[in-house]
From TrEMBL, chain A:
It is found in: Nucleus. Component of the EKC/KEOPS complex that is required for the formation of a threonylcarbamoyl group on adenosine at position 37 (t(6)A37) in tRNAs that read codons beginning with adenine. The complex is probably involved in the transfer of the threonylcarbamoyl moiety of threonylcarbamoyl-AMP (TC-AMP) to the N6 group of A37. CGI121 acts as an allosteric effector that regulates the t(6)A activity of the complex. The EKC/KEOPS complex also promotes both telomere uncapping and telomere elongation. The complex is required for efficient recruitment of transcriptional coactivators. The keyword Transmembrane does not apply. Belongs to the CGI121/TPRKB family. Pfam families: CGI-121. Keywords: Nucleus, tRNA processing. Its main location: nucleus. It comes from the Eukaryota. This is EKC/KEOPS complex subunit CGI121.
Automatic annotation (TrEMBL), chain B:
It holds the Pfam family TsaD. Gene3D superfamilies: 3.30.420.40. Its EC number is 2.3.1.234. This is N(6)-L-threonylcarbamoyladenine synthase. SUPFAM superfamilies: Actin-like ATPase domain. A divalent metal cation binds at H119, H123, Y140, D333. Its cofactor is a divalent metal cation. It comes from Apiospora phragmitis. It comes from the Eukaryota.
UniProtKB/TrEMBL annotation, chain C:
Residues 1-28 are annotated as: Disordered. It catalyses: L-threonyl-[protein] + ATP = O-phospho-L-threonyl-[protein] + ADP + H(+); L-seryl-[protein] + ATP = O-phospho-L-seryl-[protein] + ADP + H(+). Belongs to the protein kinase superfamily. BUD32 family. It comes from the Eukaryota. Keywords: ATP-binding, Kinase, Nucleotide-binding, Transferase, tRNA processing. This is EKC/KEOPS complex subunit BUD32. Component of the EKC/KEOPS complex composed of at least BUD32, CGI121, GON7, KAE1 and PCC1; the whole complex dimerizes. Residues 37-299 form the Protein kinase domain. Its EC number is 2.7.11.1. Coiled coil: none annotated. It is an enzyme of class 2 (transferase). Residues 1-11 have a biased composition (Low complexity). InterPro entries: Kinase-like_dom_sf (IPR011009), Prot_kinase_dom (IPR000719), Tyr_kinase_AS (IPR008266).
């Protein structure tokens, strides 16, 4: 079984540790959303609807943007995890971002992002092992590797194109090679995400 | 081989400059023997007109030439000189013509070759000699020209230039707006006013208190390696008009609106310099980045400005290079720069035949074949 | 000729000493963080800022990071105003280009307060380098030419000129596409265009095809033109601005590649076919040229 993955990110300060997991066919998405809505401190995670993730690169772009905002003190949401969710959006509408990219009762597959932060000599109270155990206990789904291959199985491209206003671009439709086309779309989404908030 | 001597005559604008230069082709040693200049200054608030300037040059040519020869220790110019060099262009038609006619007369009188010289090339060659900068990016800034130039394959190629008026013209005209005197030259006086933005003087004129100058709002207009100054001049003139309204209001015992910035002559001159010089430094840096050069040479009258030199120096330092600038003797239009560029051309066999010894208001820097450079 | 006994020569001022040639620059904060790919490599110190090659998110994904440090020569107020304005304008323009299918780098991250812009790394080399190498190879091939002094220009129909002509055509098309998308670059030079090699295993993107010729050819002029550095670009569709854009490129081309100057007409011919009002822009270019001549001669 694919466990929780610790992701090494470039230019990430040593104070921050990024953990990543992908769960397929999650049975208790309503429960997970409920924990977020009730601000249950034990559930400080970004639970992302995996169908809105185009690629691992796009996902990590959002994670990095959220961490950068956390470090710069320029977050627009309560914590780095909610910030990951809004960073997937390409506009500044926060509640829309939660609705679109965050876990909903109807969500089928869930990407979990956890950022452990140690501050001023006090390390994070949680270890990656603790997080792994906690998720294993509370997420009722099939844990798979959070790879491009697995993510590609669940990506809902029509939805993503709608969310990021990527319809009606004739030159995109003219690209015959599906891989090239998706690559262009992915880059457009990442660029749009990078621009959010500027 | 003995050194060669040339007389250079410059009169493309309001300065009449005549000087003697020597160059030894075998050792490539250059010496300035004399550098005499007489400037026509019009009253504050006015610019120099072609007709009056030409009359000035005609009136002073003989005495300036005599002084140049005397100072250089020449007693028999017909035998001692190799050629008479004059500014063929670019510049103002009437003063160019006066100077060309006088130079032609000397050549005929002494039976010497005439060499017509491009004014901009004169500045560049003088700057290279004075500073020892071998192959720099050249910023040529004066009342009539604003160009960023780099050498390639026997041409001085223009990388960037003004899209409308010259930077010196912008500053001079703003000086007129503020009734700043033209003597010794308007840009110098604007610079002195700008320096006063750094302190306030007590009413009894005994104590100075340092202050931070206020950067007023002026547009910034750089397009690629080109820039534009007319919009900035227009905006500065508007600010000056606003200042005069404030002056009148305050004199009448009124008060400025809440939060309204009090505009002063000092801050205006300061801002104008900061903005237009930042633009010049930026386009110069872009040209340096483009050709991969670390040296920058500033020539032309505006090149004397200490703030411009300082800003250029800061930029060059960050690029691991340095700025080469000269002082007013060589920066401002002068005769020896024409003499030097002319002599270098003469040594390669270049002559301006008598019947072709005209002058022209329009003469691009990159039209001249720089035969004497082989790098 | 007699040698006069001259007066003491006038002494010129002393030239300055060159600053230390290895100048250490402060890195932007992001590049002070750990990276498995190693330290960032300074690629160019353009006028706009410094371009680093580094990695983005993973060590294997290269990234072009543009840092606009504050300019010490500029008044701080003016500096902050220009830096912020330019970085935001640049990202908006890049995104607009990408949406319109113009080949430009994708955006990875923006930190306008630090003056940092991270973008996709465009493989390949600048047009300037490729053209100069082409000209150098040509000079080696025809050593009878006059050693590179002045007149030795490439003719369009001469043997072996086809790849260069093809490149010029693609430059014209790229600029046309850019203008069609409502963008004026503001600093078109051959340093601001990359030749991105065609990707063999990838389908054609952005309308360009890898033709059979490219596969067998060893020359490096083959590839897609990717326009970079939109630091001075603006949005607009005024014929005048477009014409000035072409004029800037024309002059930059002439001064950078004097020996290929005659081929610039190929750029303009290709440009003419890219969008409806292109012929109008070219007409305007003639006016701009005329003005250019006039102004630099008088002032």
């Amino acid at each position: 079984m694919a466990a929780l993955e610790t992701v090494e990110l470039e230019h990430l300060p040593a104070t921050h540790t990024v953990l990543l997991a992908l769960y397929r066919n999650v049975a208790n998405t309503a429960f997970l959303q409920e924990q977020l809505l009730s601000r249950n401190a034990d559930f400080e995670y970004a639970f992302v609807d995996a169908s809105t993730v185009a690629s691992r690169f796009q996902l990590l772009s959002a994670v990095y943007k959220a961490i950068a905002a956390e470090m710069a003190g320029s977050m627009r949401t309560p914590n780095v995890h909610s910030e990951v969710v809004v960073s997937l959006n390409s506009n500044n509408n926060i509640s829309e971002a939660y609705r679109r990219y965050g876990v909903q009762p109807s969500t089928k597959d869930v990407v979990v992002v956890k950022v452990l932060i140690s501050r001023e000599g006090s390390p994070s109270s949680l270890s990656p092992e603790d997080v792994g155990k906690h998720l294993q206990t509370h997420v009722q789904g099939e844990s798979v590797s959070c790879s491009d291959e697995e993510l590609a199985k669940v990506t809902d491209w029509p939805k993503l194109r709608k969310y990021h206003k990527l319809n009606g671009l004739p030159w995109i439709e003219a690209i015959k090679d599906e891989k090239a086309k998706k690559n262009e779309l992915e880059m457009l989404i990442i660029s749009a995400m990078a621009m959010r908030g500027t | 081989m003995a050194p060669l001597y040339a007389l250079g005559c410059e009169g493309s604008a309001n300065k009449l400059g005549i000087g003697v230069i020597s160059h030894d082709p075998t050792t490539n040693t250059t010496r300035i023997l004399s550098n005499v200049r007489h400037t026509f200054n019009s009253p504050p608030g006015t610019g120099f007109l072609p007709k009056d300037t030409a009359a000035h040059h005609r009136a002073h040519f003989v005495s300036v030439a005599r002084e140049a020869l005397r100072a250089a220790g020449l007693t028999d110019p017909a035998r001692e000189l190799s050629c008479i060099c004059y500014t063929r262009g670019p510049g103002m038609g009437a003063p160019l013509t006066s100077t060309a006619v006088a130079a032609r007369t000397l050549a005929a009188l002494w039976g010497l070759d005439l060499v017509g010289v491009n004014h901009c090339v004169g500045h560049i060659e003088m700057g290279r000699f004075i500073t020892g900068a071998a192959n720099p990016v050249v910023l040529y800034v004066s009342g009539g020209n604003t160009q960023v130039i780099a050498y390639a394959e026997q041409r001085y190629r223009i990388f960037g230039e003004t899209l409308d008026i010259a930077v010196g013209n912008c500053i001079d005209r703003f000086a007129r707006t503020l009734q700043i005197p033209n003597d010794p030259f308007p840009g110098y006086n604007v610079e002195q006013v700008a320096k006063k933005a750094f302190y306030t003087v007590a009413a009894d004129r005994t104590t100075k208190t340092p202050r931070d100058p206020v950067l007023l709002d002026l547009p910034y207009a750089v397009k690629g390696m080109d820039c534009s100054f007319s919009g900035i001049l227009g905006a500065a003139d508007l600010q000056a008009a606003q200042m005069q309204k404030q002056d009148a209001l305050l004199a009448a015992g009124g008060a400025l609106k809440e939060g309204e910035q009090r505009i002063t002559r000092e801050d205006l001159c300061f801002t104008l310099q900061e903005v237009v010089f930042a633009m010049l430094v930026e386009i110069t840096e872009r040209a340096m980045a483009h050709v991969g050069s670390k040296q920058v040479l500033v020539v032309g009258g505006v090149g004397c400005n200490e703030r411009l030199q300082e800003m250029m120096g800061l930029m060059a330092r960050d690029r691991g290079g340095s700025v080469y600038a000269t002082d007013e003797r060589f920066c401002i239009d002068n005769g020896i720069m024409i003499g030097l560029a002319g002599l270098l051309a003469w040594e390669t066999g270049f002559r301006t035949p008598f019947e072709e010894s005209t002058c022209t208001q329009r003469f691009r820097t990159d039209e001249v074949h720089i035969k004497w450079r082989t790098d | 000729m007699a040698t006069p006994e001259p007066a003491a020569a006038i002494q010129p001022p002393t030239p300055p000493a060159d600053s230390a040639s290895t100048h250490e620059f402060p890195l932007p904060p992001i590049l002070q963080q750990p990276s498995a790919a190693g330290p960032a490599e300074l690629i160019t110190q353009g006028a706009e800022g410094r371009l680093y090659r580094t990695s983005w998110l993973t060590p294997t994904r290269p990234c072009a990071l543009k840092h606009r440090p504050s300019k010490p020569y500029r008044h701080p107020t003016l500096d902050a105003r220009l830096t912020r304005h330019r970085i935001l304008s640049e990202v908006r323009i890049l995104q607009k280009c990408r949406r319109e299918g113009v080949a430009v780098p994708a955006l990875y991250g923006i930190d306008e307060s630090q003056g940092v812009l991270s973008m996709e790394w465009v493989p390949g080399r600048p047009v300037r380098v490729e053209v100069n190498e082409f000209l150098r190879r040509r000079a080696e091939k025809y050593p009878h030419s006059d050693g590179g002094r002045g007149r030795d220009e490439v003719a369009r129909d001469e043997e072996g000129a086809a790849p260069l002509v093809g490149l010029m055509r693609r430059i014209g098309e790229a600029v046309g596409k850019l203008h069609k998308a409502g963008i004026v670059h503001g600093d078109l030079t051959t340093s601001n265009m990359m030749v991105r090699p065609w990707e063999k295993d990838k389908g054609p993107v952005n309308g360009h095809h890898a033709d059979g010729q490219a596969e067998e050819a060893e020359h490096s002029l083959e590839g897609e033109i990717v326009v970079i550095d939109f630091g001075l670009a603006s949005q607009g569709s005024a014929d005048e601005d477009r014409a000035v854009d072409l004029y800037v490129l024309e002059r930059a081309f002439g001064s950078t590649h004097p020996r290929a100057e005659a081929l610039f007409t190929v750029v303009l011919e290709a440009y003419k076919d890219t969008f409806k009002v292109a012929p109008v822009v070219l007409k305007k270019l003639e006016d701009v040229r005329m003005r250019g001549r006039k102004r630099s001669m008088l002032g």
